[in-house]
Amino acid sequence: MASPVSYERVDGIGVITVDNPPVNALSHAVRQGLHDAIQAAQQDASEAVLIVCAGRTFIAGADITEFGKPPREPHLPDLCNTVEASSKPVVAAIHGTALGGGLEVAMACHYRCALPGARVGLPEVKLGLLPGAGGTQRLPRLVGVSAALDMMTSGNPVGAAEAANLGLIDKVVDGELREAALAWCRALAADGAARRASSELPVESIPEGALAAYRDTLVKRTRGQIAPQNIVDCVEASLTRPFAEGLAIEREKFIECMQSPQSAALRHVFFAEREAAKVRGLPKDTPLREVTRVGVIGAGTMGSGIAMNFANAGMQVALLEVDDEALARGLGIIDRNYEGGVRRGKLTAEQALECRGRIAGTTDYDSLADADLVVEAVFEDLELKQAVFRKLDAVCRQGAILATNTSYQDVDEIAAATKRPHDVIGLHFFSPAHIMKLLEVVRGEKTADDVLATCMAIAKGIRKTPVMSGVCYGFIGNRMLGHYGREAQLCVIEGATPEQVDTAMEEWGMAMGPLAVFDLAGLDVGYKARQGLTESERGDPRAFRVADALVEMSRLGQKTGAGFYRYDPETRRRSSDPEVQALIEREAAALGVERRAIDAQEIIDRLLFALVNEGINILDEGIAQRPGDIDVVYVYGYGFPAWRGGPMHHADAVGLSQVLARVREFEQRFGPGNWTPAPLLERLAEAGQSLANWAKSQVN
Ligand code: T1G
Ligand code: NAD
Fold first, then answer.
1. Residue 336's CB: how many other CB atoms inside 10 A?
2. Is residue 14 in contact with ligand 2, taking CB distance under 6 Å?
3. What residues contact residue 642 under an 8 Å CB cut-off, 6+ apart?
4. Catalytic annotation present for 104
5. Which of 281, 414, 647, 681 has the fewest C-beta atoms lying within 10 Å of its C-beta?
6. Dihedral angle over CA of 443, 444, 447, 453, nearest 10
7. pLDDT score for 529
8. Active-site entry in 47, 84, 124, 494
9. What pLDDT, in 10s, does the model give residues 154-207?
10. Phi first, then psi: what are they for 610, rounded to 5°?
11. Using 50, 70 and 90 to split pLDDT, how confident is the model at 698?
12. Is the distance from the beta carbon of residue 414 to the nearest atom of ligand 2 less than 6 Å?
């Protein structure tokens, strides 16, 4: 097999080209090819060496698919040292992204140039790792300790201009990269430019105690994760040890991360996110419908954010409301969101103006006649939504995609209100819609393949992570959340305080505890949904009586300053409220609940295993394609810690037989109503199988 690395001499310059699609990852063949090419250049008459990549990007890192397999030489740290030891100046020419091991190779080069649009970074921490090929030792030498710490603990890339300001990139070049870089190499050779080994640069000292202070901020920002602290250990070594010793400490800390369940979980999420974008049985070449003009119906909490997503992606948006007052309110939300984005440096004022300019308000359905896609986000009421879809059916051009942002309603019943159910689909955004990455794409019984394929592709265009769901009450996320939320409220009425429940889940890693999430979303949302259900559909009153009572006391959550907690009007900080505790005890007595002490482990197991058990039912019914999809839903939509991999990955990590044993114990204690073990869980646990293996067996 041909090497993905080629070497040729061009006008006295040794040109090494890496061509390993799709992202020039540093597979074994690439490492071997780079090693051999550098060695070749040492032997020939070349005056300097250029490393450049074919395709859409520079090297995007080590080949993550090789992790967990026996490592093969040349190892990346050694390869970087080989590049740096070259007797001739080595130049890296960067386009697209230079990430992880890719940036480490570039930092081992003596000079770096990049196109203006290039981005460089060390995202290893997002995989529960750290830069393991000299990055933790070379970066502080090139950009200083503070910038190095920020880049490595956030994992976020920086643009070429900022990288040049930091001293990471020596030259930003325009035009055709290879030609510009070759010209620069020739100039460097002509000037007799020296090899500059970044490993030989000093590390600027930092104030006493600065690292300790940095560790403290990191603890708050990266609760429970080991990689960020290991990165600080390595940077500390760069300050106190010679380069070679620093490299040894980096290797030790890297291996510790690589072998950690946290990294396994984060790598699982990396690939699960990419897998989720693929719909089984949907041909890759399914034609896509063109979408440049979008309509959004309802400019409330969701509609306003949804409109921004499409405008930010360059599409013209018509935002429709019932009347001018409601429209002005919606456009006001959008203006404030853009102002906030500019204040937080997410976009420039010019960019905000441009995006805002693409959103036109209307109260006239005729404005949607030429829309390619319409997303409905009116009140959560089936009849109202059906009425809206009947109107859309009348005014929208044939071939337009009609989507609903409903949280729970039956997409097939909404589609049935039109004469074109094949053009109807669910696009379930998450609040705040202009920020949350997750998009549940709900395939109706009659949704056409090209409508589904178009929406899965659009998701990427509006920077969302799509996950396909079948039609059921609450789709994937909200259906599982119902069981998670039930157990949270049962723990509260049985004896735990709201603070105990939320603290247990937050210390376990959830971004926010369930009761605090209910207060954030608004207790009235669930209350209204329950009002639409029959007594039997509502289920066990112990699981919602307290929430209902809070709503009846006009304690709707953060939006009224009080819900399960009281909120400081300035800081929005939550605090426990004795009035709520008294209410809980009253409702418990009224429902004949004998209260008892409940420890954190019971809280964690009841909430997580309720989530897992229902998730497995969802898989068994085919509502979700694969366990990884459910994990992506929870990591990107519900604040589930990515370093735990998602509920399905967590279940495999615990072991399905353990999960089943605990579920059966709860079934004994609390009854089959809430705790009937999922049949698939029983089958897999008894077969000693994991969900990951089951998923593989589903595709073969
Ligand atoms: N290894 C293997 N496969 C990779 C890969 C990688 N590093 N990066 C991407 N892919 C695959 C991906 O699975 C997908 O496959 C296809 O490429 C396109 O990716 C020692 C240890 C580069 C910004 O963390 O962030 O270096 O689904 O859909 O949206 O210090 O991919 O088509 O079969 O994401 O244009 C550090 C990871 C590694 C960067 C492009 N590097 N990649 O985004 O395409 S650890 C990273 C990305 C490391 C060293 C350490 C993005 C991208 P498929 P895509 P994209
Ligand atoms: P909201 O009450 O904030 O906004 C609804 C808007 O729809 C209001 O501005 C109202 O004036 C407008 N509206 C009502 N009838 C209309 C009609 N006939 N034509 C045009 N506009 C009309 O509600 P929301 O929270 O934005 O929820 C909207 C939808 O999104 C619901 O289906 C909800 O379930 C779903 N959703 C909500 C969330 C959330 O967290 N709030 C998350 C995901 C999905």
1. 11
2. no
3. 265, 266, 269, 635
4. yes
5. 281
6. 0
7. 80
8. 124
9. 999 999 999 999 999 999 999 999 999 999 999 999 999 989 999 999 999 999
10. -65, -40
11. confident
12. no
